[in-house]
Design goal:
This protein has 364 residues and is α+β, with helices and mostly antiparallel strands. The protein has 9 helices and 18 strands. It folds into 2 domains: 124 residues, 3-Layer(aba) Sandwich (Creatine Amidinohydrolase, Chain A, domain 1), CATH 3.40.350; 216 residues, Creatine Amidinohydrolase. Helix 3 links the parallel strand 3 and strand 4. The protein is elongated, with a radius of gyration of 23 Å. The two termini are 31 Å apart.
Length: 364
């Protein structure tokens, strides 16, 4: 496995502090794992990070003492008992004056948000839509290299699994073998439940592997990913078992052309909405407007779904360093479906496709 450069957490915290200035707040509060890992390197499942303009403090419980002291960068580590949110009234940083404390609404439940607002009487808690997400959307060279390794593992898994897809094999067994071989190759786990959907079930965009046995003539759609050093990959390929029909060839070719066109159009300056439209126009013109119901793609990184959005409503402009999926599909109920998905990094001059697996129709 490649030896990758360590992230620059000081730089990430400096960028966050600039956002604190822009939002006119004194502190920011985080407790979700992806953001804790992004900002300070912590990989455990229980943590609370408070970042101010000049200092940061990290809180966890005694189960993670050694891990936190080893991993956390740029913040003072404190080991406390019990519920971490219950520690807020005891934190000295929040007791001076009337500090404004920001948190991202999506990362706290409604009950947790209520606790925040009542926990420190002298503090003003402010729920924001975004704070770290825009920073996480732009990957540095280390992050891109890490994602590339996760992509390589997924490509390896796809090449391997083709030998196991045949009539009589259950979808569930294909998914299990695919996950096993990726872990053998270095994946830390799977970022989402592996999709293996065959025959009519391939018309289900989220058709997770079932006990159905693959049959001759089936489309088989595989949507899966790997995790390397916390970062994920996400790819989809659709293959056919046995000689394809003319309809199968036509539907596959429509999706392949739409996917290829969207990949070619990926570049700095284009919005997620316009990129989505490139693929959607091709699918609509082919007569499958109602059979493509989801967005073209999404960002990936420490989470399998993060910014930027690539869909009909996305006004986000693509910027160098963004890593997105391009995954159009056509799904015909009670017949089958096709989806093709690559991971693509936006570069200064255009784009670079990370996923290397074959996109021509593979006949098994």
């Amino acid at each position: 496995m490649p030896r990758l450069k360590k992230p620059d957490y000081r730089q990430r915290l400096a960028a966050l502090r600039k956002s604190l200035n822009d939002e006119d707040v004194d502190f920011a509060l985080f407790n979700d794992q992806p953001r804790l890992r992004y900002l300070c390197g912590y990989t455990g499942s229980n943590g609370l990070l408070i970042v101010g303009h000049s200092r940061a403090e990290f809180y966890t419980d005694s189960r993670y003492t050694t891990q936190a002291k080893s991993e956390v960068k740029g913040a003072k580590v404190a080991i406390v008992p019990g519920d971490l949110l219950a520690q807020l009234p005891k934190i000295a940083l929040l007791q001076k004056g009337r500090p404004k404390v920001a948190y991202e609404r999506a990362q706290f439940s409604e009950a947790q948000a209520k606790r925040l607002h009542s926990s420190v009487p002298n503090a003003l808690f402010v729920g924001l839509e975004e704070l770290v997400a825009p920073l996480m959307a732009i990957k540095d060279k280390t992050e891109i290299a890490t994602i590339e390794e996760a992509v390589r593992i997924a490509d390896f898994g796809f090449e391997h699994i083709l030998e196991h897809i045949r009539p009589g094999v259950r979808e569930h067994d294909v998914a299990a073998e695919l996950e096993y071989i990726m872990k053998r190759e270095g994946s830390e786990g799977i970022p989402f439940d592996t999709i293996c959907a065959s025959g009519p079930r391939s018309a289900l965009p989220h058709g997770r592997a079932a006990m159905r046995k693959i049959r001759k003539g089936d489309f088989v759609t595989l949507d899966f990913g790997a995790i390397y050093d916390g970062y994920v990959s996400d790819m989809t390929r659709t293959v056919v078992v046995g000689k394809p029909t003319s309809k199968q060839k036509r539907v596959y070719e429509v999706v392949r052309r739409a996917q290829a066109a969207a990949v070619r159009a990926s570049r700095p300056g284009i919005t997620g909405q316009k990129l989505d439209d490139v693929a959607r126009k091709i699918i609509n013109k082919a007569g499958f407007r109602k059979q493509f119901g989801h967005g073209l793609g999404h960002g990936i990184g420490l989470e399998v779904h993060e910014g930027p959005g690539v869909n009909p409503r996305s006004t986000v402009t693509m910027r160098p360093g963004m890593v997105i999926t391009i995954e159009p599909g056509v799904y015909i109920p009670n017949w089958g479906g096709v989806r093709i998905e690559d991971d693509v990094v936006i570069t200064r001059s255009g784009h670079r496709v990370l996923t290397q697996s074959e996109k021509k129709l593979i006949v098994l």
